[in-house]
């Protein structure tokens, strides 16, 4: 597609439920990143995928968070047993062969009630 | 101003004035820096970048200055317009790492 697409754009979930957030990167971009942005804060790195290499999971805050990327394209970020502190905007970005100029999606705003 | 919790530092300027947004970065080994603009409800958008072997780079109405001695980056916007109102983030690429590290952001408010 022309840009990075994320769905859903908004998600309200009850504490303890699992959620899945989806990211469609720009076609041909081999690198894909997930960041988290809490209200009024900067961007916190979560995970990085590059081609067929093992992902860099060093930013995932707990084992409740996981992500996968199928076929080198679409990625899903899963949060299990959501907590209120998980409420944030989850941003996905892609770049060409791991270059530093990222193209971001508009994010998924997650609210845990 | 200080950035504490929910409160981003805010720069208020009059339309037509020049704006200067500052950023202190953390890693002296960082070799690449980027400024992003984030409008409400959208993801960050690339504005301009600079490599560590440069101290100044100009784009259209924007200039980035890099001072490696004090680990300081600034973004200058000439003739600021209402459409420039957004949150601006600096980001650094520490050598050997796979990810950009973002600053906390500065909100730019442009008044007519």
What does this structure look like?
The complex is a heterodimer of chains A (113) and B (112). Chain A is mainly beta and 113 residues long. The radius of gyration of chain A is 13 Å and the shape is globular. Chain A is built from no helices and ten strands. Chain B has 112 residues and is an all-beta fold. In chain B, strands 1, 3, 4, 8, 9 and 10 form a six-stranded mixed beta sheet that branches. Chain B has a four-stranded antiparallel beta sheet with strand order 2-7-6-5, with no helix packed on it. In chain B, a hairpin with a 4-residue loop joins strand 6 (62-67) and strand 7. The radius of gyration of chain B is 14 Å and the shape is globular. Classes of the chains: A mainly beta (113), B mainly beta (112). The interface between A and B is medium-sized, with 24 and 24 residues.
Strand content of chain B: over 45%
Indicate the proportion of strand residues of chain A: over 45%
Low-confidence stretches of chain A are none
Name the chain pair with the biggest interface and residue counts per chain: A-B, 24 and 24 residues
Q: Helix coverage percent of residues of chain A?
A: under 10%
Number of strands of chain A: 10
Number of E-type strands of chain B? 10
Oligomer: heterodimer
3D shape of chain B: globular
Q: Biggest sheet of chain B, open or closed, and with what strands and sense?
A: 6 strands, mixed
Report the radius of gyration of chain A as a whole number of Å.
13 Å
Please compute the radius of gyration of chain B using only Cα atoms. 14 Å
């Amino acid at each position: 597609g022309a840009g990075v697409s994320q769905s859903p754009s908004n998600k309200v979930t009850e504490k303890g439920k699992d959620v899945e957030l989806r990211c469609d990167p720009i076609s041909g971009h081999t690198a894909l990143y997930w960041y988290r942005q809490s209200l009024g804060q900067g961007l916190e790195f979560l995970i990085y995928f590059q081609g067929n290499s093992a992902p860099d999971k060093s930013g995932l805050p707990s084992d409740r968070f996981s992500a996968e990327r199928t076929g080198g394209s679409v990625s899903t970020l899963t949060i299990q047993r959501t907590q209120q502190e998980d409420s944030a905007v989850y941003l996905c970005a892609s770049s060409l062969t791991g270059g530093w100029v990222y193209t971001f999606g508009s994010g998924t705003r997650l609210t845990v009630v | 101003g200080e950035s504490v919790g929910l409160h981003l530092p805010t720069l208020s300027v009059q339309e037509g004035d020049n704006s200067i947004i500052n950023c202190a970065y953390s890693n002296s080994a960082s070799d690449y820096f980027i400024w992003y603009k984030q409008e409400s409800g959208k993801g960050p958008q690339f504005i301009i970048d600079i490599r560590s072997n440069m101290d100044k780079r100009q784009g259209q109405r924007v200039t980035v200055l890099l001072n490696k001695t004090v680990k300081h980056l600034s973004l200058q916007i000439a003739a600021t317009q209402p459409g420039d109102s957004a949150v601006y983030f600096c980001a650094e690429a520490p050598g050997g790492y796979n990810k950009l590290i973002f600053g906390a952001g500065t909100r730019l408010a442009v008044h007519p």
